[in-house]
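hiii, so i know i said id send this last week but things got crazy w the move. better late than never?? heres the sequnce for the chain we talked about at the cafe, plus the structure i predicted for it. fair warning i was half asleep when i ran it
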Amino acid sequence: MGYSDEEIQKFVEENRDIIEVLMARRDARDEADADDIKEKAGARRSRLQEDMGRARDRADDTRYRLEEDIEWARYRADQNRERMEGAFRETYEAFTDPEVQKHFMTMGLNFIMGMSAFMRKMPGPDFVKEAASDMETSWKKASCSSNTECSARKRKIDIEEDDKPEGIVPITFEEDA
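okay and structure toks below
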């Protein structure tokens, strides 16, 4: 059902005017489409350039604010470091003050004496009571060997085994049957 070359050539010769008009319209439409595409591309390019400019401005603004924030953070860190160094220095000086040290040592020695007396007074095996007495003797020697004002030299706690307060009964546990 195809047409031969001669039939097509005859058709073209008979309808040449119409074909040229149609081809001119097509060329004009293609040209108009190309112009439209160029115009739209130019508009898109302009919008993209504007968007990029705004993005660049926002990035610059963000960078500027970030630099300000970093500078502020460094300033605050320096302030806090100086304040903490001062607080640490004051705390260190308070703990190393000779008067405070004297009270801490007295408190520690009194605590050890109290625990020693407590262990000797508690019901329990004799070796625990002997360990408490030995501990008290050892720390007294160690703490008072070079300290002439040692409070342990001036104090002596005597606890007799028979001096148990009245009403204290040893605790026993009964098993449930």
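btw The mean pLDDT is 80. thought thatd interest u
miss u guys!!
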